[in-house]
Amino acid sequence: MQRPVRKDETPINEEIRLREVLLIGSDGTQYGITPTREALRIAQQEGLDLVLVAPNAKPPVCKLLDYRKYRYEQQRKAREARKNQKIVDIKEIRLTATIDKHDFETKLRNGYKFLDKGDKLKVAVWLPYRAGEMLIQQGKEVLIRFRAGCEEVSTLEKDIAHEGRYLTMGLAPKKK
């Protein structure tokens, strides 16, 4: 019997350091709770590997199977899951409290594109060190104007918050 190639941390054969396990055969037959040495002997008789598939169960579950085939199936499932997941990027747009009209419209257009593409958006207004209450209020008004400009393609995810030198707001794309 050839030794399987190890690439992950799943305990197999002699690496299983438990007193007894719930043993399941390669065809699904239940052997019941057996000592690990007995389970290893059965695995060698059948020419298969003893693989710990559920270490946190009470008692831990081991299965008789071809480890290479098991690993291949696990990798295929992981690849399939990665292919089907949607990666959401978080884009950030930085503004100032005293932003000019044209600059604001440019940033708004970019934010609109990001949201339309399906990315989340973090909008931040930079404040100088000694920002007075009036400048903070202006920054909040800029964020409110930005939110209104992106209203048809976004929903508010995180309301306006004062975080250090920034006023931030989170927008998420609307579900289609």
Q: Quick gist of this model?
A:
With 176 residues, the protein is an alpha/beta fold. The protein is 36% helix and 31% strand.
Helical coverage, percent range: 25-40%
Query: What is the β-strand count?
Result: 8
CATH superfamily caption of the largest domain: Translation initiation factor 3 (IF-3), C-terminal domain
Radius of gyration (CA) equals 29 Å
Strand and helix order: EEHEEHEHEHEE
- Global geometry: elongated
Low-confidence stretches are none
Q: Figure out the total of helices.
A: 4
Strand order of the largest sheet: 2-1-4-3
CATH architectural label of the largest domain: 2-Layer Sandwich
Relative strand content? 25-35%
Compute the number of structural domains: 2
N-to-C span: 55 Å
Sheet of most strands: 4 strands, mixed
CATH class of the largest domain: Alpha Beta
Overall average pLDDT? 86
Look at the helices and sheets and give the structural class.
Answer: alpha/beta
